[in-house]
Amino acid sequence: MNTKKIILISLILMLLLVPISFAADGDYTIPSAIKDITVNDDGSTFITEKITYDVEGSINGVYRDIPHSSDQTVTNISVETPGYYNTVEVIESNGKTRIKVWLYTDEEKQQKTYNAKVEVSYSYVFNNGVKIYNDVAELQYMTWGKEWDSAVEYLESNIHIPGSKDKAEYWNNPDVYVVSSEWTSDNTLTTISKGLSSHTTYEQRILMPKSYFKSYDNAQVIDMDAKSKIESDQKIHERNRNYLNTLISLSTGILAIFMIIPMGIYAFFGREPKINYKAEYEYDLPTNATPIQVNSIVVGDVNKIDDNGFYATILDLINRKYFKVIHSNEDDTVIRQTDKDTSDLKEYEQSLLSYLSKFAVNSDISLKSIGKTEKPSEYKKFKNNWIQLAKKEVPDSLIKGLFIKRGHRFFRAFAVIFLIISNVLFFLAASVDLKLNHFLILMLMVVVIYIESTLMFAMPNTFAGHWTPQGKQFHDKWKNFEKYITDFSLIKEHPPASVYIWGKYLVYAAALGCADKVSENMRKYLDLNDLSQDYINHSDVLYFSYFGGLNHMNSSFSSLHKASSSGGIGRVGSGGFGGGGGGTF
């Protein structure tokens, strides 16, 4: 289930439940974060972040995730931890740079940090973040990202531009948290915000003349005019936000009343059956379901195949020796189709095998080159067709035996009804001469019903639908298997018996969406037991995962997916770069 759906469900439940929280070992809050962002005249950006962590309990350290696209880089990284000793680890993977800081209270680096307030200063250069259009230069910076699990009480940003403020204009998106935002010098914009909640995005946007830059070596150069479009987008954004804020503040009470219907549907149709299955973990594949079936049934919406199912199929073809891994390292992973008979492959497997083979050069397929040579539109077309083929592996007869959609159908039906009602009421409010207070009440109802219908459309089908007893056991067994393979302590106690078993587990880990974590556990286990290179070489999937194949696969296909739906000018609030998150470990 993705983050958006979790948030939507939480919005409904928060009116009915009183949250009770307990502090756990390693919990943290962020009293303050002070950021200095210096835009250099070559387009690069030098960033310093002083983040104060108020830690409860014992931690190993903290980390900071900095997201970036494939053509952006984070360089010149340094970390300071006044009053504490540290060891810094920089990890590059899947479109982000993670700065991992191990913290110690002693010079020998043996004592962990415990119940402390720690200031960590991250410094780095971000390249290709600034955008240079034909008529203007733009800094679109995500000052605070949604991946932070903690709120931040005090956030200060000081943005230094390479020219005078007189020809610059700026926006804060949103400005609801902003206490003050002003030019404190001819080229420095200082903004103070307070009370940002966890998982909140806050963006700052500055337009400035292109003449402020001596070169564009470390900037994105985009061949289009953008100034008027950006200014127009900001005006529309501000107008829409003001309008929505007013309506939402008025509709809170009535919204609670309208929650009765969806919660009633959930209570009647969505309650899960009680089963006798009580196991906490599964130490082997719990059923003979295929990876595509597991992905479609266990992950997210039932009967929906996501990217993890696609990746799992690639790993499965490697594991079943239809592809051989020629070599894999931090630079690239190269595979080659074997001469194994493919007549027994299912249609979706043959389709994927043929698709990958079209990128072969002298029989070798470079995963890294796929993302560079394939057209995003062609990949999108193939992917849509492939999903339809893969769905044949999950027939309706299988789904009906495991999951009952009746409640979800009611949910969608009421969502349609509410949407129609909101449109009718809106037409009535616009066309009938009403007193002002009656007009506001009617518009309030429009907004409430529209919001509820939108939430109901966005809910996963597992919210109002429910598992059959067989489906509940199927789902729970696979989730318990996922708990086992993602818990390193359990892997140490009950390790897979052979490289062949490791290979199968990695395939299903991909289907469950946890391949990166399982690969990390595998690497720890192999290193801990000092297993030889020969052991790893006995399984192509093991070799593929151990030496970076997962990263190359994710990077190539995720970049194609993003490119097929990307544009030139960033949306308001999208934060051209920056953001991300962090935490403790």
What key attributes describe this structure?
six-stranded mixed sheet, alpha+beta, 585 residues, 19 helices, seven-stranded mixed sheet, disordered N terminus
Description:
Helix content is 42%, strand content 25%. The protein starts with a helix and ends with a strand. Among the domains are: 246-269 and 406-464; 291-402 and 466-563.
SSE map:
Blueprint: H1 3-13, E1 27-39, E2 45-56, E3 58-59, E4 61-67, E5 73-80, E6 85-93, E7 96-104, E8 113-114, E9 117-127, E10 131-132, E11 137-144, E12 152-160, E13 169-173, E14 178-183, E15 188-196, E16 202-208, E17 220-221, H2 227-258, H3 260-270, H4 291-298, H5 307-319, E18 323-328, E19 333-337, H6 347-357, E20 364-366, H7 367-373, H8 376-390, H9 396-402, E21 403-404, H10 406-431, H11 436-458, H12 461-464, E22 466-467, H13 469-485, H14 488-493, H15 499-512, H16 515-528, H17 533-537, H18 540-546, H19 549-563, E23 577-578, E24 581-584
Parallel strand pairs: 1-12, 10-17, 11-23
Antiparallel strand pairs: 1-2, 2-9, 3-8, 4-7, 4-24, 5-9, 6-7, 10-11, 11-16, 12-15, 13-16, 14-15, 18-19, 19-20, 21-22
Oligomer: single chain
Helix content range: 40-55%
Strand content: 15-25%
Give the overall silhouette: globular
- Major sheet description: 7 strands, mixed
User: How do the strands line up in the largest sheet?
Assistant: 5-9-2-1-12-15-14
Instruction: Give the number of helices.
Output: 19
